[in-house]
Design goal:
Four copies of one chain form a homotetramer. By secondary structure, chain A is an alpha/beta fold. Chain A is built from six helices and seven strands. A seven-stranded mixed sheet of chain A has the order 1-7-6-3-4-5-2.
Chain lengths: 183, 183, 183, 183
């Protein structure tokens, strides 16, 4: 069995569409799909979020939890406020919980985005029932392939949780062509 | 010949994508298409603005001018600032001039939107070479019909400019089902 | 004024969706849009014919007549019979008259297709109120541009009918990349 | 574990896109997706066959086999011949093997279609590695749900093959609203 790495915990500065703040451990036992997006990212609006809503409608809530993650790394004045995101989620009728990725004083890339070394938005994360990160894709994913992928993770046998390693938690994204600046 | 009413002048609090502020009189001699939108209006983002960009690309700039009009009547905190709109226009690559519709102290519906008695967004306006308002549609318009409509106005014989009347400039929208509140 | 060439008459071996055989002269005074297609041509099925149906629905029947022209130049056994075309028109709910382009003994390219020197299917023809060919396009045409084009021809001032010339009626298509073989 | 019924064998009058005739037993050990279609069925052409091609491209050929089944139950003169189907498969670039469903002298509904009691076209069949019929859907299926469904069948534990029962093999379709006539 391949060793899977545990998904880094979400580091947030607030949540919308939920009564109380959430943590990945609240979803242990379910597959979790996280859609990392920015409200002014055209690909997120036209493809990523509609796909996340379709996953939310297609799978049983007992099996699959869908979470949005607002990873603002540009246009902070325009899309950085909770009010702006709240208006966006209302108008686009996003029904699932959405976390606001947190910043520290050092830079513009939010902390969860750094922990996952995301290259930009939209990024789709798939986390298994044991809390391991099983898939991370930057950009578009086809519906047919995604449906198969989610079901493959759902049908996985339970496995012991992978051990965290130091390498994984380093911040920063060094890929060439990375859409997120200043990492 | 039907009497056409002159298009009310734009009342703005600024412009983007242009070096200097514009006025409808700057476009006299051309057909003007105005796309009234809000950056957080899903129908504007998925249909209205892409269609306006297609008009911008299809017709000669000497014949047809395309203008955006940001008529914010809700979620003012999220989409009311010039910075927010600027980020939006950048990300969605809107190439034509965009006016920010002005507010007064009395209410939430911006002034140009009131002057045209718009029912909501997206609203498409078509103004002929003489400055008369020839078409105003709230909601979706089919590409084939719009192409025909624009050409019909383009091929119109020049006519004397219509006289303005008091009735036309009254503010407020009283239609049932109007998408704009508090008119 | 540019001299327009008269549209060659349709040479047919039958009609469907009409009580009696038709001729271009039956439509004099109207703009005529002809959609040349083959029932097994994917681009015709997905784009050309749906667009022709939209034109049929959008414009007044007093102004614009839409005609299909079945120009079979390949797969004659599969799509050459009147029964095959009849089944196709029924299943795809094509509402306008459709002519079956005629063959002679010399080759596989049907006669009207030759007279217009069409390069393949779909080909869109636009004929003005006086019977002159105003536009001929092989492949896809955008709805917005087509709407404008049809209206431009509709709004044209009546002009004397152009004189037929010998050059126009020669058969054969010599363009490189021509989709129709053996021309 | 639910008892699954064995998928009835295909009864064919020929095959295309394959060197030799095939049988379901040739695919034992793989999941088989069968797309039952008619070449003049608009929903098959616009949705069913493109989806089958996407499945063909997305999954490993070692895991999933895609087969077309031409179940002609109307317009026999137009779409009943092998030549017509061959031209269609060529033009639409269908890459997987396609079986021609067989007829007997008693009626118009082909024999495999009867054995499966299909209601019309398109019908999608999903058969597991042991040869049991796991899903049968008439009409459209969403890509996301289909991807999940295929993967669920793929990840199934091997199970003993179900016993055939008399009820299942009776011919005819008695559902209200059945698209196939004369069953």
């Amino acid at each position: 069995m391949a060793a899977h790495r545990p998904a880094p915990e979400l580091i947030t500065r607030g949540w919308l569409n939920t009564d109380s703040d959430l943590s990945l451990t609240d979803f242990r036992g379910k597959v979790v799909m996280i859609e990392a997006f920015q409200m002014l990212c055209p690909g997120c609006v036209s493809h990523g979020l509609p796909q996340a809503q379709k996953v939310h409608q297609t799978f049983s809530r007992d099996d699959v939890a869908v979470i949005g993650l607002h990873t603002v790394f540009e246009h902070h004045a325009a899309q950085g406020s909770k009010e702006a995101l709240e208006a966006f989620l209302h108008e686009y009728r996003v029904p699932f919980p959405v976390a606001l990725d947190a910043w520290d004083e050092t830079g513009k890339i939010p902390l969860t985005m750094r922990a996952y070394q995301m290259r930009g938005t939209p990024t789709l994360l798939l986390i298994d029932r044991q809390g391991n990160l099983r898939k991370q894709v930057f950009g578009g994913v086809d519906d047919l392939a995604l449906g198969a992928e989610i079901m493959a993770v759902l049908r996985d046998k339970p496995a012991p949780r992978a051990q965290s390693t130091a390498a994984r938690t380093q911040s920063g994204c060094t890929d060439e062509g990375c859409a997120a600046p200043n990492l």
